[in-house]
């Protein structure tokens, strides 16, 4: 079994309850709501975020049982974000299927996203755990803020590595952080334990997004294939582009600038940009950055006693970075 | 002073704190967030919902001070909904100004709406009042559900009066209900007091939306003017249309069906539809329905001791219904 499969096995009992709750709470007397919600929710995502919530609770002994509600809430928050992101990015596909907005339209995707967010908060409130509610509501605001920041930076050639670090922290890592932190709280962790898991989640999330952003260009080696260069055509200022612009000659900058945000950019144009990335090693450097964050995630767990779950969480980090190699 | 002005005067001290909080919490280091949020928030809405929260707290003696946070949260929830609704309805104007989506685009409107919702929950969480959090998070989910239901019923000639009652309850009345209920809770009301204020808010909200839906066709008298018939062109199945379809002849049904959901419908076509409404008194009957709900709102306060604030709340109901006469 690979580490994610081991995580699945170790969280299977709780995740069965989480999945039941997810199904129950996607219900509505308005048929379009569960139809659209389940189309996305059942579309084969790994449910990594809720598994992390459950795993963090198990790591500390599973004190309150609240982790089931929080895990389902985290998955709803994530799916609400996906629905809105696909509208914002005008994405046609999600997880190998037509995006929900292509089936039910943008309007329903926006509104069902809002519904899932409302349901997420209801599930959180039911726990009565005001501290975890604070963690997740803050995450919700920061995630939206990060998406706006990313939108504002779209196609902006002046975007810095620091801007990028802020975008991925806000739009991705903060939910990983919150998912792990509320799991630890539910598991009865002390302050140091909660902090350790929060940092683990944050750094895993950072690594995860960096790897995703390298994979969008085919991974470390810049292999071309299906959907390679989507971020480029959408004008997303991810680290491979930012690093390339810092080193590029004027003519190289012009090639990148022409393709960036150009939905009609040809495969050849994308290929030329990836060739520039290769020249300056920007995909490899993005991957190295991911490895730094991965190391920080693993280090965050240093102070915790060894256990089967701890070793799984460590291996999950290494596995998620290995996707890009 | 009219009743809304009296409400403003009676809540002025608390509303000054609410407005400060609203400004502070619309802040973000991402410039586009406060720019867009303040454009909408400062655009001259009456802030009726947060005033009701504050008024309900004052009515019961203002126990905890939490009403300030809840009032600001209610206004953020309302504005988040407006941002998303304008995208969904493809509205060009809002409160006499170009809608935010016309200035910053649909994408930013979706994401800033999400941000306001996250901030709303943060402000609620800060009170530590888990009961009120339950009320408002449930309202949040129901509102989105109501919007999806309305979307699903768009242009559906089979829509019943009961469907319509469900739509306006969910999309409008539930937030009025929640705004009043959490105000009462913050004010230290007993169970009967909380229930009375919740019912008052619900029925006021129902009356409010019925009046709005009659005003969209020029009010009781069906006077034509600017933006008259927007709902018709958007295919919204509001009560005036539903009642007309129930009584109409085949040829009248055809006239309504042709204009319904037809963004290009001419003023003449709208005029013909309004003439059918007049024939069957459907605007007057919509207004009568609003008056029934208004009477129920006033009756909800019967069991409460008389006070200046109670008389203001009663007069606000009558004032809001009088808009349509």
Describe it:
Two copies of one chain form a homodimer. Chain A has 325 residues and is mainly α. Chain A has one domain (3-322): Orthogonal Bundle (Farnesyl Diphosphate Synthase). Helices cover 74% and strands 1% of the residues of chain A. A two-stranded antiparallel ribbon of chain A has the order 1-2. In chain A, a hairpin with a 2-residue loop joins strand 1 (93-94) and strand 2. In chain A, helix 3 (32-41) packs across helix 6. Chain A is globular and about 60 Å long. The two termini of chain A are 19 Å apart. The A-B interface holds A 28, 30-33, 84, 87-88, 106-108, 110-112, 114-115, 117-119, 121-122, 124-126, 128, 130, 133-134, 137-145, 147-149, 151-152 and B 28, 30-33, 84, 87-88, 106-108, 110-112, 114-115, 117-119, 121-122, 124-126, 128, 130, 133-134, 137-145, 147-149, 151-152.
In short:
Chains A, B: This is Polyprenyl synthetase family protein. The structure is a homodimer of 325-residue chains. Chain A is an all-alpha fold and 325 residues long.
What structural keywords apply?
homodimer; 325 residues; mainly alpha; Farnesyl Diphosphate Synthase; 1% strand; globular
Name the chain pair with the biggest interface and residue counts per chain: A-B, 42 and 42 residues
Q: Distance between termini of chain A?
A: 19 Å
**SS content category of chain A:** mainly alpha
CATH class categorisation of chain A:
Mainly Alpha
Unreliable runs of chain A: none
GO biological process, one term (chains A, B): isoprenoid biosynthetic process
Family (chains A, B): Belongs to the FPP/GGPP synthase family.
Cofactor (chains A, B): Mg(2+)
Organism (chains A, B): Devosia aurantiaca
């Amino acid at each position: 079994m690979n580490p994610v499969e081991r995580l699945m096995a170790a969280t299977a009992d709780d995740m069965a309850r989480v999945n039941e709750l997810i199904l129950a709470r996607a219900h509505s007397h308005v048929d379009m709501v569960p139809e659209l919600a389940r189309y996305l929710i059942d579309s084969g995502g790994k449910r990594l975020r809720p598994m992390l919530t459950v795993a963090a609770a198990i790591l500390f002994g599973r004190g309150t049982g609240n982790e089931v509600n929080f895990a389902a809430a985290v998955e709803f928050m994530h799916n609400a974000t996906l629905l809105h992101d696909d509208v914002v990015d005008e994405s046609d596909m999600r997880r190998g299927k037509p995006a929900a907005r292509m089936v039910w339209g943008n309007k329903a995707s926006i509104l069902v996203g809002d519904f899932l967010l409302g349901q997420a908060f209801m599930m959180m409130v039911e726990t009565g755990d005001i501290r975890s509610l604070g963690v997740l509501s803050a995450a919700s605001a920061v995630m939206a803020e990060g998406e706006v920041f990313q939108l504002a930076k779209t196609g902006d050639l002046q975007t810095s590595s620091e801007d990028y670090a802020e975008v991925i922290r806000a739009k991705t890592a903060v939910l990983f952080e919150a998912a792990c932190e509320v799991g630890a709280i539910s598991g009865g962790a002390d302050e140091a334990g909660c902090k350790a898991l929060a940092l683990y989640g944050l750094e895993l999330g950072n690594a995860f997004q960096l790897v995703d952003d390298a994979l969008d260009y085919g991974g470390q080696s810049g292999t071309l294939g299906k959907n390679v260069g989507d971020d480029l055509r959408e004008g997303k200022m991810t680290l491979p582009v930012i690093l390339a612009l810092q080193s590029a000659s004027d003519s190289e900058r012009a090639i990148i600038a022409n393709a960036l945000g150009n939905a009609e950019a040809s495969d050849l144009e994308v290929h030329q940009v990836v060739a520039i990335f290769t020249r300056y090693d920007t995909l490899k450097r993005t991957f190295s950055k991911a490895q730094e964050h991965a190391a920080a995630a693993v280090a965050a767990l240093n102070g915790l006693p060894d256990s089967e779950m701890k070793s799984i969480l460590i291996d999950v980090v290494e596995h998620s970075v290995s996707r890009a190699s």
